[in-house]
DNA sequence: AGCTGTCAACTGAACGGTTAGTTGATATGC
DNA sequence: GCATATCAACTAACCGTTCAGTTGACAGCT
């Protein structure tokens, strides 16, 4: 469920993949990260309970401090572990921003916990200057690609490229971001419909 | 225990506005609500400290429980106190959705704490079914107005009216919602520019 | 006007439970 | 044998909540 795990054990000179030992630091780290992802997504940093994370990971509280130093350190590690998912270039195509928005929508739809995690981060750890470096670097490339698409005329230059990127992401997140009050329960829309609304919105935004 | 905070002081028969007595229940309630608004906006429910709120309000901790029953009761009271601001009809005009988005943007821009409060509510108190009733009722009226505007042709019917309302609100909140990573510091836009981007976005969304 | 009884606003201090973080001992793989 | 992964027990602080008691405001009585 989590991002690719390097599990860099080759440095220790192991040749082939050995049988899983009863004590596997990497596996424990991984279980802790997964349990912490779920706990932080639901309760945030202040509301998360270290004991619950340790229990859910079938590990011990002390290991959290051994591996991650502190509760906040664990949160940063969780965020970092999912950063590659968030910045994945493979979903981005400056020449097809509506399609990009659709794929982004699918991401948020399939992993709403990651969207919540990002929101908690924004609320609780703003200005901590942690782990947003790589994301900003990834955005630079995307903004450059949008600039190029604008020069070629396939995208309107009404909006600056960074604004356009922000708008696409915002619209893709719309139904995750929106408070529940604005969901009309009597007239709820299916996932497929909402996806189509997002795509159409972006299509209208970039029309020359 | 939780819902018993009507505080109808008119029963005491106060005639004109007298000099503020040293002990004024209404004033204390108000100070607590203001201090709680600031505290909850910054730290959320789990992160807020009842002691800090009491100190900031120059009141005693026990009074919070006397007036609001519990920490969560206080949060709900804070939300309720600001609900009228959020649902204010005077800013909404179905025949001028871009302008509406601009006015909404101004709201979020002038009171970012209220936007944070709403986000905390969504994350920490989702499904509590408290105090969202009036907001949903207010939305019903707005959705009906949009439906009418669509029938008159001044607004596209590409999107259902409730979706359109959600999109307008989402776009108006865009720069409050967006994580800091998507702010380009080297190329930051002024408030006036961002306001214009929001308006132009909605204009494009509703174009027939 | 002065005295007094009553009620509500207010307070300081504590309580019971919980929490993040620590430690030192034990078990395990190499 | 040695490094380290693991764990139960521990602690010191903290936090929401309660409570017994105090103080101020005001109405009624004389």
From TrEMBL, chains A, B:
SUPFAM superfamilies in the record: Homeodomain-like, Tetracyclin repressor-like, C-terminal domain
Keyword line: DNA-binding
Pfam families registered for this protein in UniProt: TetR_C_21 (PF17926), TetR_N (PF00440)
HTH tetR-type domain residues: 26-86
DNA-binding region listed in the record: 49-68
UniProt-listed GO biological process terms: regulation of DNA-templated transcription
Region spans: Disordered: 1-25
Keyword check for DNA-binding: yes
GO molecular function: DNA binding
Keyword field contains Transferase: no
Gene3D superfamilies tied to this protein: Tetracycline Repressor, domain 2 (1.10.357.10)
UniProt protein name: TetR/AcrR family transcriptional regulator
